[in-house]
Amino acid sequence: MSHSRPTASLLEPARDDLDLLRAYEPVVRFTKGELFFPTAVGPYVKQCSLWATIDREASCIVPAGELTVERLRAEALARPDQPLSLRFVAAPLTRGELRRWRRQPREKLVAAGRFTTTGMFGRLIEAGFRASLLLRGTVAAGLAAAAEVTYRERLEAERFTYYGRAVRTGGYMCLQYWYFYAMNDWRSTFGGVNDHEADWELATVYLAEREGQPPAPAWVAFSSHDHHGDALRRRWDDPQLLRHDQHPVLFPGAGSHSGAFVAGDYVISVDPPRLRRTLDLLRRLQRWLAPWREATRTASGLGIPFVDYARGDGRIVGPGQPAGWEANLIDDDTPWVRDYRGLWGLDTKDPFGGERAPSGPRYERDGSIRHAWADPLGWAGLLKVPPAEEMGELLSRGISALENRLRQLDVTIEASRDEVRMRAIELRSLEAHDYARGLADQRRTEMAEVERRLEAAILERANAADELRTHRDTLSRPVPAPAPQAHLGEHHGPRSTEQQRRQRFLRLWAAISTPLLLGLVPVILLARPLAWITTLIALAVLFIGVEAFARGRFLSFLASTLLLIAIVVVVVVFVELFRRHWQIAVSAVFGVAALVLLIGNLGDVSYGWRRGGRVSDDEDE
């Protein structure tokens, strides 16, 4: 479904946009075992039924087989007050059908043990997360398999489509590539976080516009788990950004379709939504008390471990590959993009949101406009990054602003210096007369305020002059560009060689540690109270110690253990001293409070006497 323009005057810009999109369209390398690939929305919609929530109940308003993209838009315009959603799968496969489907020959991913990526506590939390699937709205077992059958048989699985959008803003041409997948099967097929019908993912190539020349590629950004802002993008000259000629290479996660720049297995640590604030607080406390743990941490010890497999060893789609792209232009005036705000798949009503289908490329689930659509630069943290060609001009503007500010400060300083000197002369005159001492106190306060402002202005001028000198020096001989990855914070990459080397032992330990811990619970509970506490502490130290050793963090574990022992000792000593000498401690607190109160009261009395004496003198005169 190619987007067309109504007039000849608009045809040329559309052609230019499509040419640019074609010139930089990504090469996408999928992982072996991927079941769903970017597809066209038209055939997908024809297989769907349309549902509306009326009086909190979902009702089918257009059955499967009768829906088109045009009717989808018309129904959305006719029902602005009703939440809408599509359903791609009429019913999931039965257990028998699912077993037969799983036995069918197909490429399958050999998954790494994801429990080897996180600590024991993370694995226990994960068990609770899995149990919560029984209590909240989720995609049923067999639905992803049914979606795969429908996709393969009815949606032209060998046709690979993207929806391209070109946006000129802030000195950049933003080339957006929107990929639509019929299903996200990360959980059911690859042991990930969630399943949901429909999936929209985004890749963006940012071209820096240049005066009198074609725009030049500057940045690439991919929608990705665990990242936002600066972390979404890589500079065009980043050695980790693979390119096939002028086409960046994208590695989508298996089932999740989350974008990655480097092929590999990515550890995704997911916090339960209800525990997110508590876990953030615990991590901040850890960074403050035991900062050395940050250097050895590989994943959140309390988060739930998942692996995003972005190996790039499966099907490849893009320029120069056996399979190419079908490009379709979209923008704010594309009817189905603009007018349909509903969900593109099954609405499970999942309160956590992870198992609900997404909305289209322009909208969030609540109907608001997506950040990536409304602000392509801000989405990737590029609002603060001008194209290289503009840097000299912007710095020149900054120099002009500083020069103006220096002139203003010179006037302010001269006026304030005259004022503070005048105040000083007035103060000297008033202090010579006993009856004017009250007014002299007022003038002294005013003079101190003027003097403070003068000193601040002089300091500001000195700093501004120094900054101006630096900027002029930079303008005369520009500083080298920062390193390609200077904008990145914590690097999020695939598991390292050292982590992979430990996989055998970690896989064995991950398999036996949690069942062993749960099996020891009855033994602990049947013991006497004192033995229960000591046994629990000893087992916790043993389990965490073995895991720390297996992950190469034993020294960090020892340091943390010693810190914990020191804290416990300090607390015990304090409690014991307070228990034995609590009378002295309480007396000391009250004594200090009484002394502070007495000093404050005496100061108030002294000030009152001084003010009272002056008022009486004034009245007598």
Protein described:
It is a single chain. The chain is an alpha+beta fold and 621 residues long. It has 3 domains: 273 residues, no CATH class; 88 residues; 83 residues, no CATH class. The protein is built from 18 helices and 16 strands. The strands form 4 sheets. It has a 6-stranded mixed β-sheet. Strands 1, 10, 11, 12 and 15 form a 5-stranded mixed β-sheet that branches. A hairpin with a 2-residue loop joins strand 10 and strand 11. Helix 12 packs antiparallel against helix 13, helix 15 packs antiparallel against helix 16 and helix 16 packs antiparallel against helix 17. The chain is extended. The N terminus and C terminus are likely disordered.
Q: What order do the helices and strands come in, and which of them pair?
A:
Elements lengths: L7 H17 L2 E3 L11 H7 L1 E6 L2 E6 L6 H10 L5 E4 L7 H9 L16 H13 L10 H12 L6 E9 L2 E13 L1 H5 L5 E15 L2 E10 L10 E3 L7 E2 L2 E6 L6 E2 L3 E7 L5 H14 L14 E7 L5 E2 L8 E4 L5 H5 L31 H4 L1 H4 L8 H44 L5 H40 L20 H5 L1 H24 L2 H22 L3 H27 L1 H39 L1
Parallel strand pairs: 1-11, 5-16
Antiparallel strand pairs: 1-15, 2-3, 2-4, 5-6, 6-7, 7-8, 8-9, 10-11, 11-12, 13-14
